Structures are given as structure tokens and as C-alpha cells.
Amino acid sequence: MLVLRDSAEFVESLKDGRTVYFKGRRIEDVTTDAFCKTVVAHLGLEFDIPENPRYRDLVTFTPDGKTSYSRYFKLPENSDDLLKRSQIIDLGTRLANTVVLLIKEIGTDCLFTLNIVSKQMDKQLHTDYFNKVKRYHDYCMKNDLAMAVAQTDVKGDRSLGPSEQEHEDYYVRIVDEKSDGIVVRGAKAHTSYGPFANEIMVIPTRALSEKDRQYAVAFAVPANTKGLKMIMSPFGGTTSSEFHNPISSQHHMVESVTIFDDVFVPWDRVFMKGETQFAGSIALTFVQYHRFTAISYKAPILDLLVGAGISMAQMNGIVGASHARNKIAELIRYAETVKGLTKQSALNCRIVEGLAVPDPVYSNIAKWHFASNYHKHVALVQDLTGGLTVTGPSEEDLRSPETGPNLRKYLGAKKGVGAENRLRMINLVRDLTASDFGGYNEILQIHAEGSVEASKLTLLREYDAGKCVDFARKIARISSVAE
Amino acid sequence: MLVLRDSAEFVESLKDGRTVYFKGRRIEDVTTDAFCKTVVAHLGLEFDIPENPRYRDLVTFTPDGKTSYSRYFKLPENSDDLLKRSQIIDLGTRLANTVVLLIKEIGTDCLFTLNIVSKQMDKQLHTDYFNKVKRYHDYCMKNDLAMAVAQTDVKGDRSLGPSEQEHEDYYVRIVDEKSDGIVVRGAKAHTSYGPFANEIMVIPTRALSEKDRQYAVAFAVPANTKGLKMIMSPFGGTTSSEFHNPISSQHHMVESVTIFDDVFVPWDRVFMKGETQFAGSIALTFVQYHRFTAISYKAPILDLLVGAGISMAQMNGIVGASHARNKIAELIRYAETVKGLTKQSALNCRIVEGLAVPDPVYSNIAKWHFASNYHKHVALVQDLTGGLTVTGPSEEDLRSPETGPNLRKYLGAKKGVGAENRLRMINLVRDLTASDFGGYNEILQIHAEGSVEASKLTLLREYDAGKCVDFARKIARISSVAE
Amino acid sequence: MLVLRDSAEFVESLKDGRTVYFKGRRIEDVTTDAFCKTVVAHLGLEFDIPENPRYRDLVTFTPDGKTSYSRYFKLPENSDDLLKRSQIIDLGTRLANTVVLLIKEIGTDCLFTLNIVSKQMDKQLHTDYFNKVKRYHDYCMKNDLAMAVAQTDVKGDRSLGPSEQEHEDYYVRIVDEKSDGIVVRGAKAHTSYGPFANEIMVIPTRALSEKDRQYAVAFAVPANTKGLKMIMSPFGGTTSSEFHNPISSQHHMVESVTIFDDVFVPWDRVFMKGETQFAGSIALTFVQYHRFTAISYKAPILDLLVGAGISMAQMNGIVGASHARNKIAELIRYAETVKGLTKQSALNCRIVEGLAVPDPVYSNIAKWHFASNYHKHVALVQDLTGGLTVTGPSEEDLRSPETGPNLRKYLGAKKGVGAENRLRMINLVRDLTASDFGGYNEILQIHAEGSVEASKLTLLREYDAGKCVDFARKIARISSVAE
Amino acid sequence: MLVLRDSAEFVESLKDGRTVYFKGRRIEDVTTDAFCKTVVAHLGLEFDIPENPRYRDLVTFTPDGKTSYSRYFKLPENSDDLLKRSQIIDLGTRLANTVVLLIKEIGTDCLFTLNIVSKQMDKQLHTDYFNKVKRYHDYCMKNDLAMAVAQTDVKGDRSLGPSEQEHEDYYVRIVDEKSDGIVVRGAKAHTSYGPFANEIMVIPTRALSEKDRQYAVAFAVPANTKGLKMIMSPFGGTTSSEFHNPISSQHHMVESVTIFDDVFVPWDRVFMKGETQFAGSIALTFVQYHRFTAISYKAPILDLLVGAGISMAQMNGIVGASHARNKIAELIRYAETVKGLTKQSALNCRIVEGLAVPDPVYSNIAKWHFASNYHKHVALVQDLTGGLTVTGPSEEDLRSPETGPNLRKYLGAKKGVGAENRLRMINLVRDLTASDFGGYNEILQIHAEGSVEASKLTLLREYDAGKCVDFARKIARISSVAE
Predict the structure, then answer these.
(1) pTM of the model
(2) Residue B436 · residue B235 · CB < 8 Å
(3) Nearest to B304 among D343, D460, D475 (CB)
(4) What is the mean pLDDT of chain A?
(5) Which of B311, B478, B481 lies closest to D469 in CB terms?
(6) To the nearest 5 percent, what fractions of chain A are helix, strand and coil?
(7) Mind listing the pLDDT tens digit for each residue in C74-84?
(8) Terminal-to-terminal C-alpha distance of chain A
(9) What is the pLDDT of residues C166-210, one digit of tens each?
(10) Mutate to test the interface with A, among C333, C361, C422 (most CBs of A within 10 A)
(11) Which residues pair with C153 in a beta bridge?
């Protein structure tokens, strides 16, 4: 038996009275609004994939041998589970033409995290979080829910901690405690797909000190919960033509500022309440899973940069030129370095509380390598493509009887390519790298799933440098030294 | 006496029946069309600058002590002329918020080129081009015209020369010669501001061999000449709000594909006809001037990257963080390296046929440095700015009574900054680096005024490596060696 | 039964009358010459490793379940064989303090190559090379021989092919054919450890065209063969003190110019004779194995750069400084990227003629990454170490009663470190990176096992770009196009 | 009249009983010791230059129109003085085959500094330092002395200030004050050419706080002062053959650890005593001059990298290969960027207390650019040179009748070059980049005259970022904001 919703069921589930704003107005129904419809159609892909027999085995799992669920919900136990998880993230993103779907990925990153940290808390503090987490996990799995995670607080002055800000609400906090639950207030930035999820999960964004007790809170609420407002960002998307924007006219990633205006959360959905000493554990464990998700969904865009770069070099007749060959080799090297290190992260996983956690050394190096080299490789593709990327004509000019014949004659490039094919590939490059969507991609690569600085910190913390230091001392013939 | 048009005269001069296409339709009047109006207003700045007493002395010159013209037309005789030229290019671009005006710059780059090469041709071939060039120069200067230069042929298969293409017209060529002039056919790509210029000047894009005689052609025609079609590119611009796009909503650079459909050119406007051996000279001399123009108009965008980067770091409260300080130092280094080398190019100018030509070693190194590092420094600014660049709310959300108070409370960052100021600066960064306009900028930096590969070639050709080789041989104690 | 020689047997085997020159004189016995003795002691490590029970299982294999040989000789059949091979290369190099031993590695790289290509030749040309190769492989294995490979011809003018040179002998060639074998003439450069090997194997260095038939030759000769001269390079080594040069005073890699002065080779040692169409296959297959060897033996030096960098930062008291942390993170990232990609190369191996060949995409990216970033990371370690690296005192000054107490007082750095320990670590860094040996390392990283340009070529040839191009076309909605 | 010593007088002046140690023994006379003799001969060049009529005008100045002194002593008043100073630094270094002479440069950097800061101290504190500095300046100038500057304290734990160290003497300090002067104790590292100078000048290495009063000391002593010990470093030099080490066998830069064992300094040679608030001014002003010296003496090595790179590409027959051309273009770009920015530093000088101070923005960017790219460009030259750099034969092998003919035949490369010429150029590259001396160069580029981190700090402090921030705010339409 397959316990999976189809895309129609997913769409239907979004008609629940949620409070979403866009460009200054309230969106009554995200499934009918012109802009949101494109996002919903894009996300529907996630639910269509298991329908395809070609993919079904990969994207589902059958814990009891009878009932099958989305594989995203499978608690990873070993390298193989992580490799398969990486593959399904890649698959979904590839089918969505490089725009990650993320409504399963990030939520399960968070569920795995809560699974691990709740066990740790229960052990050390004799709390009873693990069972709540388990029930909630089952609930999401059995209803095949779409999930968003609101983690990054709006932060105010970033040089100050939660308690030191101009006002108390720069980090989400507990403002009241009742017999049946808690009341939370604050705002989270950058919530991916929040307005299109069934569940919004909330976790701390950083380690907290004792005085930040009210900020140590983790919970989940349905998207239509009272007091929850989501203000969608208008940037990075477009509703222009498929010809001009072959990707972004069909696929949107959407973020919101997510506001908790004194939202009530019942006890069974509260996964942390004041345990400041574990806030950092949640933030860090989540990051271990989430950066692995991040590097897994980069594979399609990496392949596309390679493919577009080669295609343009071929079309322009420069594929044999030394400088073009160099650029193509660089693109391949970039793509495969990230992909190879991603696999190493799965293969070198660590077992924590029974769950396989991707190796943070390799995942953070992969992330760092990707993020710190993205713009450089975008430049290579833009270079191979040519200035026509932003000086060329529109589709309408190509179709016009007055200008079309001129353009077809003059923009033909290498024999046999044809102006239309060339402009299509050029448009792909512009859409991907030199447009509102291209700009969105650049910002995403730098900021999503933690900055390069964050990756360096994790790397320094997680790397076993002792063996290297010992090797150096042995060769230097140093017996003992203070550190 | 000041022989300069004001912006109203400039606008009026564009109502001349020119053939311009945009998004599939013919633009009847570029001064009234909604999109074009913004470009015209932007370019009008060029004509307003001399009206300002603060700038007048800098931007004009008075060859006979009585009549003053735009300084752009001054034939450079020494370093000081080039330094001043660099300053007026910087000034215009700065007043246009980093979007270069270019309707004087590029045309005079071309006039200087023709001035030099016509003298060379006349000397060697006993032609009479120089006097024609001089008359044309005077004509442009005395009428204070806006000029565009159409140089880059559409090229077809770039691995093949003009005569080897699938059809003969991939490079502009002479198709007929009449008693009173020539007839030309072909198309040029990337013509900046062609639809907004009074004059379109055409020169060869590369060195030519003897068999390419029909392609060795240089000339100028008024923008409304019969058979001349300009198809404007729709990319890189926007008509969105000033709040969301503080630069690109006000300033557009526009390129066209410029088609010569059997255009007649009278003899007095023909500056090269079949002299293949000088096609390369024109292309190269033009490039010496034009790359100097290029590096001169980069100064404002370099300063803006520095200023925006620092502002965002201050607003976000991270200006004291080590990683932020590093990024700011990198931005400063980048900006000042390009600016310092630009000055060196003027200071080390060469005198050719009585004209000061910017030193190509320094101008090409400056260009290379700028172009090959632009994306990297964009990434630094994006990094300092934060993810909100593409996940933040719209102006309408900020103004809405329903969401505005929430946003002002939560997006405030460092005390005293305020959400609105922060969003304004964030929007500036997005507009400049992560939008259709930002993409336009990236492509421009890579492709305009010649690629990095072209700069390397020029550098290798122009550098006096002999003194270095001699120094190496002297130290290695090598007396003589075949090369 | 263990069929392995110990180091004494190895040493003994080198007393065979071979013709070796060093600094202008003939070395009568490489086992007694002062400089050569150090090399012999260093290489002896290779034969001592299997004696150590801790390593024996790893470094041997037992094909028939009874007799054990050096694992180097095992024909790799799968990823696991390649991973183990990588481990034993790492182990030997690590025990030799980062200086690769190579007298088993490179010879077996060559044997695997001949194994594959001889099968291909026999299939296509009906020759009988494979059996000869097999017999020779067995001979080397059963006698546990030390092998060198002379591949790189001296090349003359590198822009010309073998037949186009000033004289015919710039590439090793067959000058005569007799009833019992062939006579070869020419010279090979960069032969690693030739003067310390039992066998010298020779293969072509590049693809050859039909007219280069005499250059298509592969063979093996004992090191003391008549007419074989090896001129050892004096560079990169030192005989200075262990304190000043903790690595290079104990471990030397040595290369020679290897001259074949009409050397006779009997038929059973000739593995290619005129089959020009397979010269490229040998060169390329060898490179697949040899670059995998290369990236495998880099792991210890990578770890040492990390370890030395961290140690110096600790000793100098800057380990908490932001810039130092950045440098350490960069070093870790560098090391682990190369190591991770090396493992991927084994894991993605290809099976050719029954043998596992390391994936050339990952091995070449690893090689390229290592080689193109080595100097940069050396600079990071030098930066963390300080100027004292080349301005500090000698061991004699430290031991002198006149200056020792001063130096111990003033060069102490962080409390508890002590001047002597600090100077030891500084000396390690200087020896590794800023000395004759450090210079040797830099050149080695750039040139050994093929240049970065060679890695790019291989990558472009071996990469399956089709899937990326298809992905780009699908998204761009291009159905078919000429290429 | 020319008041300049010749090299014989310089040599004679060094026989003064100074206390110098080298490799564990006291050097009785630095002019006769085998190793030191080479250094003395090298430094003698400085005194031979003015003897050459070709250089005399440049390297001298005549303040009163009658008596001429070394131009080094001229207090710079404007850009032209700084440009000339840069030229004489370049000239001396070039004549010494890239090894800077420095016995005039650094001392006058220090004299200019004391000139400025003494005026500032006198004004603010009503001290009388300026007259002492002036008398000392005249003394050095009129006796044409060789000077060394001991600035960098040994520092101990670099994370701690002078007063916080394990013992009080990690920074040079005043231990006693007498009626006729002060007594100082401590040690300075990296003193260039101390053992070969007439005067040792001492200044603070950093800004100091009030509690560091005893460390705020500046003074000068003759090199043979009692209690002054100099321990010479043995690294970076060689006494090998001119053929193998064409530069380093003839030219040595030498540093010492300089120990002040309770050295007495009379009042007229004390230039700071306890004025902690000006310790930073001295350190910073010195750095402004000294970094300008640094970038000025880099020009010859930059030219040599270009010249050696091109020569090797020519000799190897690869000068037309695309990858080689790229590398050569990179080398030229590197060299000219540093040289161009150096000139800008002089041209943009600031006037402080009547003296021209090189613009720190450009000098620090030039320094940063040089230091952070040196290793990369060394790698390019090594790449163009080939592996033979460390695998080739010795001079003795080339001269030997047994091996010489073989080597001349086989190592010939491009027709007409010849093995000997090629080996000479290869040896130059190895000596310069891949040897003890090459390692010395690498360390020097990173650490001498302040690290890259120090350059960044200076840049951030000295840059007028306000104009950039204002530009960004104007475009973003932000009126006022807290910072």
C-alpha cells in the first residue's frame, strides 16, 4: 500500500485559510492566485514523482514490508540511506529544472534532528521529548505532509545576542505558558515555501546561554494556525515567457518572513522549552543534515552549468579554442568536486543516537567549495555565451515578420545551429545566471544553509586535527609541548 | 560662447523617423514610448552637466579661446588631456548612478581612431581620408551630436573568418559601389544606445586578410538613414519602482542589433573602403581608446560596491567582525587597483600621429583586473548584505497597515538604522548585483570593450618584454641564444 | 610463505656494476657512496614494512592462499583493490616522512598498463605480447624487485614531434633489430630512483603517428645493462643536519637523466615494437594508474601541512586569531578535498580488459586540485610560521654556551613551548617548504605525473559531457542541433 | 664635492670589534670570514654605484649646490623625491641581481620617521627630540654610514602584550636610567644586515599602552657597542657555484637575532623614552616609508620572473602554446600591477610635518598584491621551466668528458639554444624559486615589511570610505542613519 498524496491532494490541502501576504495584499487562496499557482504547480512535482513507476522504488520505502511511504521520512541508519536520500533530492531538483522542491527535504532534516536531540535531552534531563517527536514524525509521514522549517531569526543587530537587542522579540521566544501549551512571539526570516507547506516547524538558530531561556524553543504548528503570518518575497521570480525565462517562468522558490503574533502551541507539539544547553545541539545537528541536503540539490545546477557552457561553445564555434576548453574543464572540475565530496560525506557518516549523520567535514567542504566558487563559474558560462545574453532581441522580434527574417539570418552562428536554438540556449544562460532569478541563485548559494564562515567554523570544530599535529611533531622530533 | 545642446534639444533631435524595434513592434517615437522615455531621460543627463557651473570648466574646452565645445571632442595631446577625459567619463557615470552615458565617449573614441589611422593610410596609400575625418569630427563637435559606434559584427561561426561563413553577410560588407558612394549590408551586434544617437559610426571589428576586401569598410550615417534597422534588446532593464530598483528604474543602458539592409553611404562619410591592411589598425586603435573609456567609467560602480558593502556591514552590526573587515578591505583593494592603473595608463600615454593614446599595458591590465574579479567582489557585497536581499518583503508590504508595523519592528537590524533604510540599501544591492540589471552588469563586465582574452592578447603584443629577457640572460650569464 | 626481500637483500642487489654518475664522477657502488647511502636507507623502508606485523596483512597478498607477495603486484580487480593500493602507497610515504618510496608503485603502474595494452594489441594485431608481459610480471613479483620507469623523453623542442627534431634521438627509438632482440638509443629525463632500482622499464611518452614507427617501443632491462647510463641530479637533497632538515637529511627522492647508448634488449623483454597506434594507449593507461598513485602519495604531505600549520599557530600563540583560523580551515579543506576525490577515483573505477582502472575524472581533478593549489597552501603554512623560518639561528648557536642561553630566553614564544621545540617545528616548515627540498617539492607538484594541462586534457577526453548537454537542451527546449 | 665612501672604506669600517655569531662561533672579522665576505662584496655595490657617472646624478643630491651626498638621505618633500627614491632603490637592487642592498634604504626610512614623530612629540609634549634627530641624521649622512634597523621584537606569545609575557624581556625595554643615558635590554628578530651596518637603529614595533612605558624606547647605537650581540641566520644563503646558483652564490641578504644585553645608550642617541602615546606613531610612520621601500625593491624580481618565464618558454619551444602565453600574460600583469601602484603611491603622497609620506592606500595595496600573489607566479615560472629544474645534471656532469657529450646532445631543446644555455636559465629559475634562496624569497615576500594582515589593517584605517558610503546612500535615497 502506498501512503502518498498526489499533487491534487496536495493542492487541496493548501486551501485552509492560512494568512499569506504578497506585494501588500492578503492572498485569499494560494492555489488560485496567479503568481502562487506557478509555485504550487512546481511543488506538485514532488507528489507526482512517486506516481512514475520508473522512480517509485527509489523514492519510497516500506518499513513493515507492506505499507510504503515517501523515502524522505526514512530515518537514515547508514551510508546507503544517506546516498539514496541524496539521490532523491537530486532527482526532484532535476525534474524541477534545478529549482529545489524542499517541502520534504528540510522538514525531514528537522525531524531527524529532533529525533537525535530529543533522545539526548531525555537521557540527560529526564524529559519526555522523544516520544512526542516520534508521534509527530509518524503524523507527518502517514499524512505525507509538506513541511517548512522556520529557523533563522530576524536577529536585529547581529553583533548582539537575543537578550541584548533593542527589543526582546528579535528572536522567537516564549511569551506565555498555559496549562495546555505555550504562546510564542517573534519572526523568522527566509522561510522556504512556508506559504505552501502544511506544517511549519520552528527550531532555534544558535546556541544560547542561560539568560536566553525564553528563546530556547522548538515546536511545530499547522500553516493555518491563528497568529501566524507569512509575508512572501516578490524577488527572484518572474511571470514572463517560457522563451525568455525557460526555468524561472515555470519554477519558483519562495521565501517568506514568518511572523508569530502570539501563536499558541499545544504541549504535544512543543519539542524544546527552555533547555538552553541543547539549543546549540539542535542548531548544529540540523545543520549537519541540512548542509548535506544543500550539497545534494546542487548537482543538477552544476550539471546545467557544464551543459550550458559546452552547448554555447559548440553553437558559437569556439569549442576547440584553447580558452574555451579551459573554461569547460574548469566547469567540469567544479561540478565533480562538489558531487564527489557529497558522496564522501554519505560514505563517511557518523552514527549518533542510532541515526546516520552525514560527515560534516566533507559536507562542509563541499558546501564551502560550491558557495565560494559559484560566481566564478557563472562568469565562465557567461563568458562562453557572449554579450548577446543581454543585448539580443526578444521572442516577439524573432516571431515578427518585419524583424524575424533579419534575426534568423544574422544570429545563426555555427552552421546548422539556427538563431532560434541559439537564442533559446542564450536565454537559458541569462535566466539561470543574469536575471532576477540568476541573482536569486547567487544570493542563495552564498546564504542558504549557512554562510561560508559557518562552514569554516563547523569544519574547524569537527575536524580531527590531532593526527596531523602528531605527525608534524613526530617528524620534527618534538616529544611534548604545551598547547 | 558655448556650443552645446541642452537635453530638450537632444530629445527633439531624436524625433527623426528612425527605424527602431522593441519587443516585436516598431517604436514610432523613441522620446514618447514608455520604456524609451526612461533611456532618453537618462541620456539627457549628458547634456545637463555643462549647464551646471560647478562642472562647466571640466566638461568643456575652448580651442580658440572663444567658443566652447564639449570636452569629449578634444583630441588628446598629452597625459593631462587623457586624465581630464577620464574625469568627465567618471563624472557623467557617477551622476547617472553608475550607468555610463556613452553617447559622447564611444563616438569620440572612434573619431580619435579614425584621426590616427586616416593619417597613416594617407601617408602610406596616398589616400585622402584624413580631411574627411576632420570635417566629420568638426560636424559632430559643432552640432554637439550623440554618437553610437557599431563595431562588433554578428560573426556567425566564430572559428571562421568573414569570407568562410555560411553566408557572406555575417560581417558588414560593401555590396555595391556607386558614383556618389557605397552600399553596405550586414548586421552589428551590441550597439550601445544606437536608437538614441544622432550618428551611427561603423568600423571593422578585426584584422582582415586580402581576401576579405569587401569587409574592410568604415563609415558613418545618421540614425534615420534608409535601410538602417535597430532592434533593441529588452534585457537588463525594468520599469519597476524606484524603491525596489533604485538604479535600474531610472537608468538604462540599451543595446541593439543594428541591421544594414543595403544602406547607402555617400563618399564624404566613407572612411575606409577596401584597405584591408588597415582594418586591424582601426580595430586596435579603437580598442586602445575604448578600453581606457571602459576603465574610466568603472570607477563609480567600484566606489558603489565599496560603499554598499560598508553600509550593509554597518547596518547589520557586523562591521567589526573579522570576516566583514576582510571583505571590505578586498573591496577597497579591488576598486583602487583599477583606479590607480587607469591613471597610470593616462600618465604613460604614447604619442601616435600627434595624438595621445592611453598606455595599452596599463589599460589592459586594469580592464583584465576589473573584468576577471567583478563577480568575486559582487559576491562579497552580497555576502555582507544577507539573504534578505531576495527573501525580503516588497515596498507595498512595508507600506501596508496590515504588515508594515510587523516589518518595521522585525527588520530593524542595528539600533537607529530602521527597517526602511535597511531595505533601501538591500534593494540597492539587489538591483546592482542580483537582478535583471545585476545580470546585465555581470555580462557587461565580461564582454563589453573586449573580453579578457582580448586584453591578454593586446598585453602580450604591446609589452616590451625584451628588457626583462635581457635581465634574465644577464643574470644567467647567457651571451647569445636563438629564439 | 612470504616471498619478500628484506632491506639487506635489497641493498645487496644494488651492487651489480650499474653505471651511475653524480656530480661529474662515476659512483662505483651506490650502497657505499655517502650521498647514495641515504637514498638506499630511505628506500630500504619499503622492504622493512612487511616485516612489521602491524602492516603485513595490508601490504601483502596471497593469490593461492599459501604464498604471499607484495600487494603492489596484485592486479587490481575492483574498487577495494584500488583502495588498498592507495592505502599502502600512503603508508610507505607516511613512514618515509612524506617522501614517496616509489620503487614498487611506479613499476606496477607500468605492469598493469602493459597487461591491459598487450591484451588489446594481441586482440587487434594478433601479436603475442600478453604472455611476455605476464612472465615478466611474475618475474618481478617473485623476486620482489625494485623497479623504475623511464617514460618522459628529453623531447628537444616541445613544439615538434619525434621525427621533426634537430636530431633523431630526442625520443628513445629502435636503431637496430637483430635476431635475438632490438637495439635502442636515446635518453629519458626525470627517471625516479633509476640508480636504485633492479629493473628499468621503458614506455612511450605520447601518442605517435605512423611516421614515428621507430619511436614506438616498450621494454625492460636490468639496471646494470651495458650501455645504460644514469646521471643523477644533485638537486633537492642535502646532507645537512637532522635538526636543520628533519626530512631531507633522512629522505631523498632522486631522479636521473637515463641514457640508452645503443642498449640491446632481448625479445622476451620487448613489449612494443613499432605498433604506433598503441603508443598513445600505453601512455594514457599508464597515466590513469600513475596519477592515482600520485594522488595517493600526496595524503601524508597534505596532513603534514595541516599539522605543521596548526602547530606553529599554537606555538606562536595565534591559534585563536581569526586570520590564523581561516588559514587552518583552508589547509584542512585542501587536504581533505584531495583525499576525498582520491577515494572517489577508486570507488568509480572502470573495468578494462579485466583490470580495475581508477576513474580518470576524479583522479585528474584530484591531481589538478593538488597541483594548482600547492604553492598557495605552502604560503599559508609559511605565513603561520613567521619570518624566523629564514632569519633564525642555527642548531650550533642554540647549543653554544655563549649564545644558547640568549636564544632559549628570547625565542620561547607561547609559555611552555620552549625555543628548541619551536625551532624544531620552524625547521620542519623550512625544510618542507622553503629550502632546496622545499623547492624540489614545488617542482614535483607541478611537473610529476603530468602537468595540470595534461590533467585538463584527460578530463575533457574522459568526461561524459553528453548527459549535461542533454539536460541543458531539455530545459532550453531545443530538440536537435548540429554540433 | 662628493661626500660618499667607496666600497673599500665601507669594508674597512666594519673592522670594529663588533660581536657577531654564525653557526655557533664568534666571527672575529666579518670582512674576512668566507661566508661574510660574499655579503660584504654584495653590499659594497651600494658604495660603487655613485662612482659610475651614468648613475651619479640620480643617486646623489646636493642640498647647498656644492656638497653632494647620497640621495637616500634627502628628506622627501614631494612626489618627485619619492619617485627618485623609488628609482634608486630599484637601481641598487637590480645591480645586485634582485637582492636588495637595504643598508641605506631602511635606515633612512627610520630617519624620516623620527624626523616626523620627533616634531610631533616636541609640539605636544614640549620635548626636544627633533634637534637630536636632525644632528643624528646629519651625522649619518655626512659619514655616509650603513644603517640597520632593529624593529621587530621577538614578541614571545603573540596573543599577549609586552607586559603580559612570561618574562619582561620579550620586547626591548629600558632597564635603567643613568645621568648620561639609558640602559636597554631585550632582543629584536629579523634585523637585516645588522652585522654589516655601522649603525643599529631601534624603534618600537607596535602601539603601546600606558602600562608599557618601559617599552617605549627609540635609539641608535654603533654596531660595535658593548653588550650588543648579533646572531646571524645561516638560512637562505649558499656558497655553491655560480653555475648552479647564479644569484645566491654572489648575493646574500642576511638577518640576525639582535640581542641587547644591557646596552648603554647616551642621551643624544635616545629618540624616545617612555612616550607610550607616540610608540604607535613611530611604528606606523616607519611602516608607511618602509612599505614604499619594499614595493620599490620588488620591481627587479618582478621583471626577472617575467624574463625568466619568457626565456624558458622560448628555449623549450612552447612560447606559442596557448597555456604558455596565458602564463606569460599573467606574469606581466602581476609585475606591472605592482609597479604601477607603486608609482601611484608616490604620486598621491601626503605631506606630514613638511615631509612627503607615500600614500598608504596604494603602497599597501601594492604590497598586498605582491605578497599574496608571489607563490602563484613562482609556480607559473616553474611550470614554464619544466621538471628538469630539479632532475637535471650538475655542472660537473656537463663538463665531464664521460657524460658531457651525452648531456649536450640530449638536453638541447629548441634548435640553437644549446644545453648549456638552457641549463643556465633553468639554474637561474631554480636558484630564484626552488632552492634555499628561493625559499628565503618566499618567506621574505610574506613576512618582510609587515604581513598581508598588517597591510589590510593599514588600508582599512587609511582609506577614506566616507565618500563611497555617501554615494551608496545617495543612490539608495537614505537621508540619515546611525552607524
Answers:
(1) 0.97
(2) yes
(3) D475
(4) 96
(5) B311
(6) 55, 15, 30
(7) 999 999 999 99
(8) 60
(9) 999 999 999 999 999 999 999 999 999 999 999 999 999 999 999
(10) C333
(11) C188
